[in-house]
Amino acid sequence: MGVRRGALIVLEGVDRAGKTTQCKRLVQALRDSGKEAEMMRFPDRTTMIGQLISSYLEKKSNLEDHTVHLLFSANRWEQVPLMKKKLEQGISLVVDRYAFSGVAFTSAKPGFSLEWCQNPDVGLPKPDLVMFLQVNPAEVAGRGGFGDERYETSVFQRAVQQKFEQLIKDPSVNWKVIDAARSIEDVHTEIKTLSENAINIAENQPIGELWK
Ligand code: NYM
Q: Matching Pfam families, A to Z (predicted)?
């Protein structure tokens, strides 16, 4: 038998929910227990498409709303060959944001349906597990203020939160809602347990296609 594939594990949530901290902790914990794991993040600001996105987020340039949505999607698609290669080599990928952020952020703008926003990402490698780090704005107020990037206002983040709540209802995706208002350690323990289970199950399954 060939190598057992790695699992595609995604962390999602509004800004300041603790995704990046938890992704790093999870990769370290998986490695400590002898599993191969790597972190990825979207947007990946290092590519040419990623640089266009980064300049938009930093408000150094303006892009039309549909256009930037498609760039975020293209920024995922350009990593697909590498993602598949790593998964097939048995490396689990821990991903900080994925297509769900793409849909939640664009559909929070006026005039965008969930369906239109999902379409460009249909067929991406399907995550084996998507953990939604749930916080309410009052609970994270003590985590420091928003930065200066686009979308970093409490009004917009509330709209994004509502869109995530709609996406979580989709039973074709393996969503787990995590209470991220707890301590970093408690949240980590739950995420680690869920991820280890997902890795064990994914080993024997083909990589799925998202929203297809
Ligand atoms: N974002 C992220 C989108 O609008 N669409 C997407 O597809 C993705 C992946 O980019 N506010 C938004 C959410 C964030 C911003 O993310 C940058 P980060 O994790 O702060 O670098």
A: Thymidylate_kin (PF02223)
Distance CA 16, CA 4 (A): 34
CB of 42 shorter than 6 A to ligand 1 = yes
The ligand 1 atom at the shortest distance from the C-alpha of residue 53 is 10
Cross-strand partners of 155: none
Give SS3 for 4.
coil
In the CATH scheme, what is the code of domain 8-202?
3.40.50.300
pLDDT in tens, 78-131: 999 999 999 999 999 999 999 999 999 999 999 999 999 999 999 999 999 999
Q: Is the ipTM of this complex over 0.90?
A: yes
CB of residue 12 inside a 6 A radius of ligand 1: no
Verify whether ligand 1 is closer than 6 Å to residue 79 (CB atom). no
The C-alpha atoms of residue 118 and residue 100 are separated, in whole angstroms, by 8
Token pair belonging to 191 = 């995420």
Distance 75 CA to ligand 1 centre (A): 11
Instruction: Return d(Cα 148, Cα 38) in angstroms, integer.
Output: 29
At a CB cut-off of 8 Å and minimum separation 6, what does 186 contact?
none
Ligand 1 pocket check for 105: Cβ under 6 Å: yes
What pTM was estimated for this model as a whole? 0.97
Q: What whole-number distance in Å separates Cα of residue 117 and Cα of residue 103?
A: 5
DSSP state of 82: H
Domain residue ranges in the chain: 8-202
